[in-house]
Amino acid sequence: RFEERFLKQNFQRLMFKQSLSFVNMPRLASPEYGRGDLLQEQFENTLFGNMTFGDLNKYRKGPFAVISATDMASGQRIDFTQENFDQFCLNLSDLRVARAVAASSAVPVVFSPLTLNNHSGNCGYTVPEPFQAALNDDAASLQQKTRHEMLHNRYYADSKARPFLHLVDGGLTDNLGLRSLLETQEIYPNSSLQAMLEAKNISRVIIVSVNAQNQISETISQQAKIPSFRDMINATIDVPIARASQESLRQFRAMVDAWNAAQKDAEKPIRMHFVSLSLHDLPPSPLRTRALNIPTTYYLPRESINDLKEAAKILVKQSPEFQQLRQEAGQPETPQAAAAAQQENIH
Question: Model pTM?
Answer without folding.
Answer: 0.83
